[in-house]
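Re: that chain you flagged

S.,

Sorry for the slow reply, it's been a week of failed gels. I finally had a moment to sit down with the sequence you sent. For the record, here it is as I used it:
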Amino acid sequence: MEPLASRIRPTTLKDFVGQAHLVGRNKPLRTAIEGKHLFSFILWGPPGTGKTTIARIYAKAVNARIYELSAVSAGKDDIKAIVNEPDTLLDQRPKVLFLDEIHRFNKAQQDYLLPFVESGKLTLIGATTENPSFEVISALLSRCRVFVLESLSEKNLVKIIERAKIKVPKDALQWLINLANGDARIAITALENTKRFYGSVTVDTLKSAFEHMFIRFDKKGEEHYDTISAYIKSLRAGDVDAAIYYLARMLAGGEDPKFIARRMIIFASEDIGLAQPTALVVANAVFNAVDVIGMPEAQINLAHGTTYLALAAKDRSAYDAYFEALDDVKKTGNISIPFKIRNAPTKLMKELNYGKGYEKYDKTGYLPEKLKGKKYLKRKGK
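Prediction finished late last night. Pasting the structure tokens below so you have them in one place:
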């Protein structure tokens, strides 16, 4: 049987709920849909807020053939197949490609897609939960309008739940809305599973159904922060097995691999630092590999980098030195910089003794007078 969320999905703007700033009267997407304007755009917003529904409504309105791909599993061959699908005398409609999770396409895949969007062979609708300015190449981004979707309000969710025509007591409705957290897909799927498994919808039956549905990695919630914390602490302790486990858990749960790679770069300087300076080089190389290669192959690069960082010697002295210095900056403000190390680009500055007495490799110290003799970098055994 077709899932409930699919059965009640609206097919026109008349029945669409939420995103009034985009599809309300005289708003940009409504104007485009009603005017049948053909153009590429990206829908950026949280899960379950209507991105797929808007794409389908738009394609229908402009009388286009819509092809739906997920960037998680699709590749160049899928795009090529769509582009090369011949028109017929009976069907010469424009081709709209709805690419879900477009941020998962790596640079090479996006470069391949670009000329088809430029030429108009494909009209692209990208959907993403990540900031497209970070995840979509500039050339492709410049050819698309970006529309930002918002989490659905409680009022919106109530309207969508009512469409399911399943009896829900007030306390159960509020519990469901709280757990859905603005995501209509979660609300409707939980509602459907609860009704199917338990016959009636109550707080208790919702809890039971919800626990079975969502034993998963929540990229926006507590699980996200707990798992990345466990990963970093495992690296810090040199526990390779634990670090690899938490890496696998994050990737299997759908965590953005670039997020993990960024944390590796931070860790390389924060925790390894001067003990093994090449760690920063390795971490940056892992990030570049993730960016260029993409998943699923990039998980190998992440595992390589994780193992290296976990096994590396640790030294937080550079990190500690900086934040101790920053604390002094906040406490003392812009205290006077010694004249001998000031810049002296003009005659007046030289007359005022800017730069006077400076000699290369001088060991007398360059800190402001108030902080004279202060030692920020404290390395063990040095």
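What I noticed first: The chain has a mean pLDDT of 87.

Talk soon,
D.
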